[in-house]
Structure formats: structure tokens, C-alpha cells
């Protein structure tokens, strides 16, 4: 059994997609970001960066010992689950393929994801009188990353070639929400086709429907929710509670 600490965001979807694709038995726990669940002591013990997603695996591989294993950060979680199941990643003995996979995982968590996250903030959550510069800046960076992905998908169906992998799962969510970010895939037909292929997978549909009614659709913004936005290190500690994550 795996406990998934989750909110219905692109980063959360990365892990729910992998769990659904693998058919692993898991229990989802909604982390109410707007209410500060992510700052509770019990959650910080699992995810010290106070971010979702995170997992606790109560049945880890034998090599890890008998104690439960907690993992935070979406890329690390997908790598852990791929190694646990032996699925959706190149064999560890295929060093070149493994190297390419790691490159694209790092590209996503260091480039596409952060640029998409900042674009989302300035498109949807920043004060209306402070949006323009940030939106233009991060829309340009988001589009640049779409161009990188478009080039990568030339003459291949999936990021790593012939096989759907955790690289696709990690990258997909931030391409999936291009329209709500104010971006367009019209100039990136290979990305659009790749996105459609992934979106059509039943496991992906189940994953993105998880806690769908609890999505932040603009009701929690920087000007009305100081728990979700504009945190300082001191305020993180002040908001920490003794209760376990919900």
C-alpha cells in the first residue's frame, strides 16, 4: 500500500498518473494547500519542502528493508516507482538510454515545470495590476520549452523514442494545461499530437480526475490567500501544526 499526498495540480498529476499506469494499490490524501495542510509537522516530515506530491510506501522493495519509505519531489517519486515496478524506464544496464531519461527528467523539473508554474501564477493568481510583465516573461519561457519538446519529438512518438515512459508522464501535465496558461500549441503540432495520445490513456484520465472538484480555479489568489502565496521561512514554522496531514 502506498499513501499519496496529493493536490489536483500538474505536479500532483505526475505521480497519480504513474500510480494508475502501474496499477499500484494506493490511498490518496488530499493536501488542502489553501488551508495550510502542507505546513503541518507530520507532512513536513515526509516532504520538507512543504510541497506536494509525496508518497509513503509501506511495502518497499526488499533491498530497502522493512520500514516504510517516504519520497518527496515528483521526479524522485517517479524514479522510485519505476525502479520498484521495473516499468516505464530503461533498464539500469542500458546506460545510454538511462542517461537520456535522466536528462529529460532534469529538464522538466529544472525548466518546463518551473517556467509553467510561474506562468500559471502570473496568468491566474497574481494581483491584476502586477501581471503583465511576469506573464509576458514566462509565456516566452514556456513557449521556448514547448519548442524544445517539439524538436525532441521529431521522428519519435515518445520522449525517449518508441516507449512511453516516466519522462512523458513527468512532462505531460504542464503541456496538458497550455490553454489555461494562456499559451497555444498551434505552432507545436508534434507536441499537440503527443499530448492527445497521452490524454486518451484511461490511466491518465483517472489520474487527472482525482479530487477534481478541489482544484484551485482562481478562487485562491495572491491578494486573498496568504497561506498559499507569499510565504516566508518564519511563517512556515508558525503555521506548522501537530495534527497529521488530512
From TrEMBL:
- Domain GST C-terminal, residue spans: 94-220
Do you know which CDD domains this protein is assigned to?
GST_N_Ure2p_like (cd03048)
What this protein is called in its record is Glutathione S-transferase N-terminal domain-containing protein
Kindly give the Gene3D superfamilies that the UniProt entry links to this protein: 1.20.1050.10, Glutaredoxin (3.40.30.10)
Coiled-coil intervals in this record?
A: none
Using the record's annotation, list all stretches that form the GST N-terminal domain.
1-89
Q: Which domain of life is it from?
A: Bacteria
Q: Which PANTHER family match?
A: DISULFIDE-BOND OXIDOREDUCTASE YFCG (PTHR44051:SF19), GLUTATHIONE S-TRANSFERASE-RELATED (PTHR44051)
> What InterPro entries is this protein classified in?
Glutathione-S-Trfase_C-like, Glutathione-S-Trfase_C_sf, Glutathione_S-Trfase, Glutathione_S-Trfase_N, GST_C, Thioredoxin-like_sf
